[in-house]
């Protein structure tokens, strides 16, 4: 392998390492953004209302009165861009059971 090829390989490995590091930093900050910003936004409040109304304010698991909306899946890159189908109405007891 000549010197220029070796330099190119080392450069590419460095770029890949930096991209991975940036991804990990963003990944660690995602839960904070989600809790502190997104769940307090008007966008979330509208989406939450649509889901509760769709499910007739009933928990999809026990049929009780739903007061919360649960994510069955999370958008890993575009927080807040999850489709309505990923969200369900749920009561506090069922939500606590799922998360604990």
What is this structure, in a nutshell?
The protein has helices at 3-36, 42-54, 92-99, and strands at 68-71, 87-90. With 100 residues, it is mainly alpha-helical.
What is the rounded Rg?
Answer: 21 Å
Helix and strand run: HHEEH
Give the strand line-up of the largest sheet.
1-2
CATH architecture of the largest domain: 2-Layer Sandwich
Strand content: 5-15%
Largest β-sheet summary: 2 strands, antiparallel
CATH class (first level) name of the largest domain: Alpha Beta
> Would you tell me the structural class of the helices and strands?
mainly alpha
Helix content, binned percent: 55-70%
**CATH topology term of the largest domain:** Wheat Germ Agglutinin (Isolectin 2), domain 1
Count of helix runs: 3
Shape: elongated
Topology:
Layout: H1 3-36, H2 42-54, E1 68-71, E2 87-90, H3 92-99
Antiparallel strand pairs: 1-2
Structure report:
By secondary structure, the chain is mostly helical. The chain folds into two domains: 36 residues; 59 residues, 2-Layer Sandwich (Wheat Germ Agglutinin (Isolectin 2), domain 1). The chain has three helices and two strands. It has a two-stranded antiparallel ribbon.
Primary descriptors:
Wheat Germ Agglutinin (Isolectin 2), domain 1, elongated, mainly alpha, 3 helices, two-stranded antiparallel ribbon, 100 residues
């Amino acid at each position: 392998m000549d010197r220029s090829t070796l330099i190119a390989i080392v450069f590419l490995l460095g770029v890949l390492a930096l991209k991975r590091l940036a991804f990990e930093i963003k990944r660690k900050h995602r839960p904070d953004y989600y809790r502190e910003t997104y769940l307090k936004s008007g966008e979330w409040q509208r989406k939450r209302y649509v889901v509760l109304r769709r499910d007739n304010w009933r928990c999809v698991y026990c049929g009780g009165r739903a007061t919360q909306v649960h994510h069955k899946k999370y958008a890993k890159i575009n927080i807040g861009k999850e489709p309505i189908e990923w969200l369900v109405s749920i009561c506090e007891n069922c939500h606590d059971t799922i998360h604990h």
